[in-house]
Amino acid sequence: MFVVYQLLNSWLITVERTDFVSVPVTDMTRSRRFYGETLGLPFVKRWGDMPAGEFQAGNLTLAIMQPDAFGFEWAPSSTMIALQVDDVKATREQLEAKGVEFRGDILDSGVCHQSFFADPDGNPLNLHHRYAPK
């Protein structure tokens, strides 16, 4: 049994934490305006001369990047990023005033409110507020 455990451990990697989530974009200037000015996320850093930079969304770093510069084909993400806010309705109204278009009405799941939208490249985003205890 101990030998099996040693073999399994030799194949596994140790992950300390998640450092960032990549968001594929086609236009860095437009994306920096959207994430920085429209959403109001703090800009953390640019990746040198590469078309990539980081924004802080609470405890999650969003790395916006042009995939073709890193050897990948561009396609919008299918993974939704949920942004926790205090008041989904008020935040939605603020973003709508800035030109953000939402998809559908505010969803009340019975434990949280959610409102869905996308960045200029079609990457799915979500305003989220959990009102029920976990």
Overview of this protein structure:
This protein has helices spanning 2-11, 28-38, 88-97, and strands spanning 21-24, 43-46, 52-57, 60-65, 81-84, 102-108, 112-118, 124-130. With 134 residues, it is α/β, with parallel strands linked by helices. It has one domain (19-130): 2,3-Dihydroxybiphenyl 1,2-Dioxygenase, domain 1 (Roll), CATH 3.10.180.10.
Please sum up the structure shown.
The protein is of the alpha/beta class and 134 residues long. It is built from 3 helices and 8 strands, in the order αβαββββαβββ.
Poorly predicted sequence stretches spanning 5 or more consecutive residues: none
Helix content: 10-25%
Order of helices and strands: HEHEEEEHEEE
Instruction: Categorize the overall geometry.
Output: globular
Mean pLDDT across the residues is 93
β-strand amount: 25-35%
Q: Using only CA atoms, what is the Rg? A: 18 Å
Head-to-tail CA distance between termini: 38 Å
Number of discrete domains: 1
Which fold name is given in CATH as the topology?
2,3-Dihydroxybiphenyl 1,2-Dioxygenase, domain 1
The CATH architecture designation is Roll
Largest sheet: 4 strands, mixed
CATH C-level category: Alpha Beta
Strand order of the largest sheet: 1-4-3-2
The number of helical runs is: 3
Structural class: alpha/beta
Query: Tally of extended strands?
Result: 8
The CATH homologous superfamily is called 2,3-Dihydroxybiphenyl 1,2-Dioxygenase, domain 1
